[in-house]
Amino acid sequence: MGGRRGAPGSGDDYSFVSPVVKYLVFLFNFIFWIISLVMVGIGVYARMMKHAEAALACLAVDPAIMLMVVGILMFIITFCGCVGSLRENICLLQTFCICLTVIFLLQLAAGILGFVFSDKARNRVTEMINNAVVHYREDIDLQNLIDFGQKEFGCCGGVTYTDWSRNMYFDCNLDNPSRERCSVPFSCCILSKDQQVINTMCGQGMQNLEYIEAGDHIYTNGCIDKLVNWIHSNLFLLGGIALGLAIPQLVGILLSQILINQIKDQIKLQNYNLKHSSDPWS
Question: Are 253 and 103 in contact (CB under 8 A)?
C-alpha cells in the first residue's frame, strides 16, 4: 500500500506512510524473527540431547520446552510485524502491537507481584534449590549448574551445608552405604589461592562436624541467603537489565502504532481522492 511522495492534496502523488517508519518496523521485527528461529533451534537440540528426565523435577518447566514455546510465540508475533509492515496491513500490525503490549503488561505485573509476594517467591526458590540438591547426581548439566552457583556465591546447600543430607549419596543416615555419606560436594570447599595440591575429597564427612569447625574447610552458609543478598546489592544492575528488555518492546509498540496511524491517514486520503475524482473542480 506504499504511495509516492508529493505534497498533500496532490492526489495519488502523496503518501502519509513514511518509508523510514515502515522499514524500521520491518527491521525491528526481522531481527527478533531471526532470534526466535535460533531460540527454537536451540530448544529442539537441547530437548533431543536431554535424557535425564528425573533431574527436571526440580524445575517447574523444562527449559528446552520453555525455550521452544517462547521462540514459537516470538516467531509468530514478529512474523505479523514483518509482513504487516511490508504489506502495510493494519490487521497484522494491530495484532503485533496488541501482543507486544500484552507481553509488556504481563512482565510488568510479574515484576510487581514478585516484589509484593517476595516471601512466597523465596519459598518457591527454596523448594527449587532443595529439589535440585535431591537430583544432583542424576544430570551432569544440573550438577555443573549447582557447582557453579556454590563456587560463585561461596555457599553450600539451600539454607545450610547439612541440606546435602537430602541427597541419597550424601545422606547421613547410618544405613546409607554410599562412600560419600555425610559429605558435601567439592564445590562447597574453601580453596586457598596458594594451594598447590587440591584435595578434591575435602568435603568428606563435613556434615559430621559442628558449624564453626566445618567453616574452616567448607562454606557453611546456604545459597538462598547468598542469592537474596546478591539481588539486594545488584538492584541497579537488575533494573538496568529489565529496562533493557522493556525499551525494545516499547519502541516496537510506538513505531507500529505510528505506522498504523499513517496507513489509516493514507486510506482516508485515497477514499477522499476516489470520492472526488469525478469533481471537475478538485
Answer: no
* Whole-number Å distance between alpha carbons of 13 and 268: 14
pLDDT in tens, 186-212: 999 998 777 665 677 889 999 999 999
- Give me Rg for the CA atoms of the chain: 29
Question: Which grid coordinates are listed for 97?
Answer: 502491537
Global pTM value: 0.71
198: left (phi over 0), alpha (psi -120 to 50) or beta: beta
- Can you list the pairs that 85-92 forms with residues at least 24 positions away whose Cβ atoms lie under 8 Å? 85/22, 85/23, 85/25, 85/26, 85/29, 85/256, 85/259, 86/22, 86/26, 87/1, 88/1, 88/2, 88/17, 88/22, 88/259, 88/263, 88/266, 89/1, 90/260, 90/263, 90/264
**For residue 166, what is its C-alpha cell?**
537430602
Please answer whether residues 185 and 147 qualify as being in contact, where contact means their C-beta atoms are separated by less than 8 angstroms.
Answer: yes
At 103 the three-state DSSP class reads helix
CA–CA separation, 246 and 231 (whole Å): 19
End-to-end CA distance of the chain: 23
* Cα dihedral sign, 61-62-67-73: negative
